[in-house]
Amino acid sequence: MSDSEQITIYQLKIFILGISPMIWRRFKVHGNSTITDLHYIVQIVMGWTDSHLHRFVIHGKDYGIAQIGGIWFADDPSKVKLADFGWRVKERFVYQYDFGDNWEHQIRVEAIITSESTGSEPLCISGKRACPPEDCGGAWNFMAQKQHYSIWYIADRFREIVEQGEISESTEEIHQLRRWLLVNNFDREEVNSRLKQYAAGDSVSILFAQRIG
């Protein structure tokens, strides 16, 4: 295989700014993937539900999938390939999601791999901690809520619900308590299962409907 037929693979690390301890993911993506692909891959690896507007800021220019009432982008995201940017190792760019809560992510190019064969990309290699809940108010509100929903508070509320016999009436609260109980959990196998579905061409709407459900 000639050099012109070799495949470029980017190893990227993404994390949400303003949150400690850090919520992050490390993943691989083909250089011939598009901005459209990268948007959906980021949504999947982070655990978002694609419910809000977004944009990438790369080399000082905005990129993304345009939506009614949202930002207009000069380039068709399905035609802009990642390899077109000529990224270098340690280069960084920004991904913003939900302009109300303003989740700002930094993405760093950790490695650039040249291969003569396709692998299983996109692929999540590692990560830490669950994604914040949608519409929780942004980084500061998320950290405040996380502190409030301590394991002791959750245990006390579960005990009260059981002792008062209000399990059937408290299903929504129980679901919320469970979510905060698992706030430090990250399921890489589930993420890679969804990435595999996306790479296979499964409907994006179905993919995120499964995520929400």
SSE inventory with pairings:
Blueprint: E1 7-16, E2 24-30, H1 35-46, E3 54-58, E4 61-63, E5 92-97, E6 103-115, E7 123-128, H2 139-148, H3 151-163, H4 171-181, H5 188-199, H6 204-212
Antiparallel strand pairs: 1-2, 1-6, 2-7, 3-4, 3-5, 5-6
What would your notes on this structure say?
It is a single chain. The chain has 213 residues and is an alpha+beta fold. It has two domains: 154 residues, MM3350-like (Structural Genomics Hypothetical 15.5 Kd Protein In mrcA-pckA Intergenic Region, Chain A); 42 residues, no CATH class. 23% of the residues are buried. Strand 5 and strand 6 form a beta hairpin. The longest helix has 13 residues. Strands 4-3-5-6-1-2-7 form a seven-stranded antiparallel β-sheet, covered by helices on one side.
**Which architecture name of the largest domain does CATH use?**
Roll
Structural class: alpha+beta
CATH superfamily of the largest domain: MM3350-like
In round numbers, the mean pLDDT is: 91
Number of E strands: 7
Main β-sheet, in a few words? 7 strands, antiparallel
Question: In the CATH scheme, what's the topology name of the largest domain?
Answer: Structural Genomics Hypothetical 15.5 Kd Protein In mrcA-pckA Intergenic Region, Chain A
**Topology pattern, helix = H, strand = E:** EEHEEEEEHHHHH
Number of helices: 6
Gyration radius from CA atoms, angstroms: 19 Å
Taken as a percent bin, the fraction of beta residues is 15-25%
Shape: elongated
Oligomer: single chain
The end-to-end distance, rounded to whole angstroms, is 44 Å
Identify the CATH class of the largest domain.
Answer: Alpha Beta
